């Protein structure tokens, strides 16, 4: 087998092995499944070992395949990165950048502006955004990176913490007029709360100036959608939690009021997630740009909130974990 073909087949094997699917790998590579399958079979013959176990329903790596994938993945990633860097030197970062992001209100309102500005600066990069709830399959769905508000469970993923967004408690003036306004965290136990998870109760951890209090709250309505919970709160159904930047219009319009404004709940982290540290130029340029701009945009939006004790979106050090 010639050296150029060997390197090509190594890259094909890595694509199939990571996705554990010939059809997904073929779609990502833009080649027929039959051609891809034939190249992998020839590659296994050249190596002299079976690297993949194939059935009609499942594709799995053999022990040899697992070991070989671990050895050549970095080589293939570095080769791709080198090629991208050479291309970037010639005409700047380019290519198709596929991003997954949660369907949260702040994404629609603030991340969209960051992406718009990035796109104007990088005319050779086509940005595609999918709004998808967690968890996201970065490899299987061919994403270059994901924006996440929960740290992924997969230890192999690379996670960069970008910012933290303050959370607070909010209720409609009509509800507070009827039920009274809480003055201490313990008062929440006698109030009607829109529970953010399935069930009739939840445990909230409230903090103020180094003091932390755990309170069990409950109510007749629960939902896992922040947007729907906000609607329930505006309708006077109880107290809800929310990112402070998501309810600034409701606060300014008098539809909601902040409850216990001196107390906060754990902040919502914002992460960028990738499958490797060896990123192509298009991904690196976006992460570098968006890391600075997104934290600044969120912080600015919080400062501009027209209500007392406005929330803060805090930039954080660029922490990477595996």
TrEMBL record:
Keywords per UniProt: DNA-binding, Transcription, Transcription regulation
Keyword Transcription: yes
PANTHER family, A to Z: HTH-TYPE TRANSCRIPTIONAL ACTIVATOR TTDR-RELATED, HTH-TYPE TRANSCRIPTIONAL REGULATOR
Pfam families: HTH_1, LysR_substrate
SUPFAM superfamilies: Periplasmic binding protein-like II (SSF53850), Winged helix' DNA-binding domain (SSF46785)
Listed InterPro entries: LysR-type_TF_proteobact-type, LysR_HTH_N, LysR_subst-bd, WH-like_DNA-bd_sf, WH_DNA-bd_sf
Gene3D superfamilies: 3.40.190.290, Winged helix-like DNA-binding domain superfamily/Winged helix DNA-binding domain (1.10.10.10)
Protein name, as recorded: HTH-type transcriptional regulator DmlR
Organism in which the protein naturally occurs: Methylorubrum suomiense
Family: Belongs to the LysR transcriptional regulatory family.
Every HTH lysR-type domain range: 5-62
